[in-house]
Amino acid sequence: MTHRAPRIAVELLNRTVDHLGYDDRRRDMFISRLATALCRAGRNTEAARRARQVISRATEPATVAEMSWVLANALIRTGHGDQALDTLAMALAGDVPAGWRARLRSLTALAQVTEGAHAAASTTAEEAVAAGESTSDRLAVSLALRVLSLVRRAVGDERDGQELVDKALAVLGDDHEHLDLRLLLLADRLVADDSLAGRAEVDRAVGQVRRLAEQVEAGRFTQAHTLITACYFRLGRWDDALAEVEALAPDQEDRYSLLILRGLVALIAGHRDDHTAAEAHLTTIGAERLCSAGDRHNAGYVLLARALAAEREGQLAKARAELAPVLAAGTALEMNVRYLCLPELTRLALAAGDHDTAVAAARTCQAETDLAPTAGRLAAARRCRGLLERTPALLLAAADHYRACGRRLELANTLEDASVLFGEAGDLPAARAAFTEAVDVYTGLGADWDIRRADTRTRPYGIRRGQRGRRDRPTTGWDSLTPTELKVAHLVASGSSNPDIASALFLSRRTVQTHVSHILAKLGAHSRSQIAREAAHHPANAADAPHGSGS
After folding, report:
1. What is the DSSP string of 244-291?
2. CATH 1.10.10.10 is right for the domain spanning 478-536
3. Is the pLDDT of residue 357 over 50?
4. CA of 254: how far to CAs of 73, 219, 234, 289, 342, in Å?
5. Which CATH class is domain 244-461?
6. How is domain 6-234 classified at the CATH fold level?
7. Is 274 in contact with 97 (CB distance < 8 Å)?
8. Confidence class of residue 548 from pLDDT cuts 50, 70 and 90?
9. Which has the higher per-residue pLDDT, 386 or 507?
C-alpha cells in the first residue's frame, strides 16, 4: 500500500504507531515505514519530522540511510535543497551500505541540480550511475540518469535530455516500488514531447502520465498534473488547464508545483481581463524575489503574469523589468517557458524604448537556437528577429509553426505583431488578415485583454473589428459548457461512470468529477439523470463527440 495507495498506508501506520508504547522496540520500525508512506503521499513536512525522529535514535546504518533518503526528498520538494545537501552529506559520511550509498549519491545530484549547481550535479550523477550499476540498483541508476537529463535540458539540449529520460525508464522497469520515479520520468518526457513532438505524441504522453498518476496516487501526483496543466495552457486549452488546477488537492506541499500553478492561473486571469482574480493569485505568490535556484527554474509563468499585469496598467518599463530576469545567468527556466518569455521580452523592451534589452533577448534566443535548432526555437528566434528588424515576413514564418503545432496564444501574439508591422508599412490588406486571425484565436481563448491591446495597437492604421465583435460564452445553460464539458456531459448521458469517462478522455477521476460538478452547476441540475435529459435535446456533433483526449 505504501507504493500503490500511500494515503491508506499512512492511516494504517498512524493507527499502529498510536497503539504502540514508547518503549516498544518495534516503534521506530513502524515510524520509519510511516515516514516513507508520508513522503509517497506528498505530506512532506510530516514525513521530514518522522524521519528526523528515527535518525536521532537509529543505530542500524541501513535505517539511517533510508530515513536520510526520505528526509532529503521531503526537503527538496519543499524548496530546501541546501538542507537536503547537508542531510545527505552527513549520511554519506557514515557507515552506509553500498546500495544505499549509490542511492544517496543520486539524490545528492538531484539536490545539486535544484540548487543550480549543474556541473557538480553532472559529476555526482555520473558517479552515482557507476555505483548503482556496480550494485545493480536500478533506482540509483535511473535517478542519476534523470539528473543528467535535467542538466542537458538546462543548457538547451532537449533531444539528449529526452534520450536520457528514455534510458532511465528502460533501466527502471515497472515494479511497484519504483512507480513514483517512473511517474516523474514520464512527466519529464511529456515536457520533452511538448517541445519536440506533434500534438498526437503530446496527447499520448499525457495519457501515459494520467494512467500512472491514477494508479500510484503518490506525492508526485501534483507534479505530474502540474506539467499537464502547463501543457494545456501552451496548447490553448485554458478551461481544461483551470479544471486540472481545481481538481488537485488544496493541501499539497510541493513548492515548485504550487509556484507554477499559481502563476498559470494568474496568467490566464490576466489574459481574460479579470484583474481582480489575477491580482489575488499574484498576491498569494508574494512580491519577494525568487531567490532559490528551484524557484527561478519554475518562475516563468509568474514572471509572465507579473509582466502582463504591469502592461495592463500601462507600465511598459515595469513590464519589461519583470521579464528581464530570464536573461540572467543561472535562471535556467524550463525551455518551453523560456521561449514564451524571450519574444515577449523583446516586444515589451521595444515598446518601452529599451533597444538594448530587446537586442539581448533576440540574441539569447538566436544563440540557443543555434545550439539546438528545434522547430519551436526557430519560431521563437524568428519572432524576436521579426520584431527587432521590423520584418513581418519573419513573424508569419513563426506563425506557421505555432499554427501547425497548436500553440494558440503564441500564434495570436505573433499575428498581432505582424498586423502592426504590416500597418506601419502601409500594407493594409495583410495587416487586416493577420489582425482578423489573431482576434479569432484570442476570442476562442477568451483573451479579452489581448483583444483590447490588439485594437489599440492597430487603430492608428484604420484597422477595425467591424460590427461582429466578441460574443461572450454564456455563464449558464448548455451553451456555457466548454468543449471538454460537452464530451463529459454526453458520456454521462450514455450511462458512463466517472472512471469510464476518465479512461475514455484520458482525464484523472478527480478532473472528471470537477467537470461533472461544473456541468451540474451550469445546467442548474441536481443529478446525472438531469444532465442526460438536457443532453438528449443537444445531440453530439463531431466536435462534441466523446472520443480522443478531451481537447
Report:
1. HHHHS-TT---HHHHHHHHHHHHHHHHHTT-HHHHHHHHHHH-SS---
2. yes
3. yes
4. 11, 8, 22, 19, 27
5. mainly alpha
6. 1.25.40
7. no
8. very low
9. 386
